[in-house]
Amino acid sequence: MGSASPASGVIGITVKSGWACMVLITGSTASPSLLDSRRIELSDPSQPEARQPYHAGCGTARAAGPQLSTLVSAVERFGSQSMDTALEHYRSQGLRLDGVAVVVGSLIDPDSIGNSHVRIHALEGRLFRSIVVQAAERMGLTCAIHRERDLYPEATQRLGKSDFELRQTLKTIGESLVGSWRAEHKAAALAAWMTLPA
User: Fold this and answer.
1) CA–CA distance, 118 with 121 (Å, rounded to integer)
2) Higher confidence at residue 152 or residue 68?
3) Per the confidence metrics, is the pTM higher than 0.70?
4) Quick check: 136 pLDDT over 70?
5) CA 77 → CA 20, 128, 132, 188, distances in Å?
6) Residue 1 lies in a domain
7) What's 78's domain CATH number?
8) What percent of the chain has pLDDT over 70?
């Protein structure tokens, strides 16, 4: 008789500037369950400027050049290592990961933005999103990207539940968590919930 199939789940990640909120959701779309929640540092906490590498301070852009290139490369190395470690931790627990659902603030191409302050935020969003997506792809995981402001309308259609029902379920599954259960946790959980099997 063969061994039992490993437990499976979907990872939800809300990407912020310099860090990400990661949750592991198991079960089905009819009955989602929270298995884990953690904060992932995507930039070195001992290097404060790495949280917003394209910022030079006071809303001004850091000039292109060796300093910016070095800072971005350091962020990519640190963030990639953090993500690889987190994903490998779940695999080492015997879990089968069925995909990663990523929540971001914007998907606008930074090159299309005229306002320099808005552009540097978009550049940072793209940088940290890329770190997360590439880590998932290195592990052979399918990655779905959701824009945060579209998340609840999309979930209402895909899950066949009202906005109120979605929020109540997210509140309930978060009650098992020791620690905070904030908007970024709920967004990550909702994105993962949409990726669960029916």
Assistant:
1) 5
2) 152
3) yes
4) yes
5) 15, 11, 12, 24
6) no
7) 3.30.420.10
8) 95
